[in-house]
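Q: I'm writing up a methods section and want to include an example of the input and output format. Could you take the sequence below and give the corresponding predicted structure tokens, formatted cleanly so I can copy it straight into the document?
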Amino acid sequence: MMRASKNQSFAVKFILLGFSESPELQVPLFLLFLTIYAVTVVGNLGMIVIIKINPKLHTPMYFFLSHLSFVDFCYSTTVTPKLLENLAEEDRSISIKNCITQFSIGVTCVAIETVILAVMAYDRFEAISNPLLYTVFMSSKLCGLLVTVAYLWGIIISVILTYSILVLSFCETKIIDNFVCEYSVFLSGSCSDKHFSELIIVIFANLSVLCTFIIILSSYLFIFVTIHKMHSVSGRYKAFSTCASHLSAVTIFYGTLLLLYCIPNSKNSRLMIKVGSVFYTIVTPMLNPLIYSLRNNDVKETFKKLKDFKIIYQ
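A: Here is the clean output for your methods example:
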């Protein structure tokens, strides 16, 4: 009986309204999101290539950044193509299976990113507080271990949250005022008891975000104390500039998350939630490589060499 109920649930579809309430904006939004996605793909994959080929960038910070770029690429590729499809076609339906798959991959990427951002904060703390022993503390073995923990944490959180969705039942096609399969889509579309799923999602989603945010906050408190103790103004500026890019990425990532949590769930706030979700799921993965590349001369120098190499062999 349980199996039959699940088969019936998987036969149900969701209709993601997205931005269909503004038909005149469908084409401009399609072109905008297509451009953002193209920049995201080129920026993140380009950053991985640049870090790989430039020996000057074979440092712990850029090792973590290469994984951050990979995760951002995966996350954007999970969300944006479906959004573009919904903007281009009248049929905005998505099967439960595909929706759960998108949700699962998305959760994995977000959970991994939170840990990597926390690890990068710790890396900046070691670089500023213990510059002479930095390479000893942040050995390649430790860096590999920290990245492995990030991916394992992402998978664990994804499995738990996906299970909380799989126990729900879906009885009929549901129209959802959203463009991405996040947890509220499943909760609003379910016809079964949601208390267990809501509890699991709240506990583990908040645990993942809160733990990593505490690590980031603690690291930067120690960093600011260390910088404040420096007597040289140029030394302070140099120390702060080494973590400015990461601080910008963290502010954008957690700032958008905080904004989405703080917006009240009402009809009048749906547009703000959509805009915040777009920024969080689509714009942020594009900004990270831009933030790091614009502030680093080695990255810009490598990019120019690649560009010149391409021109010579055309």
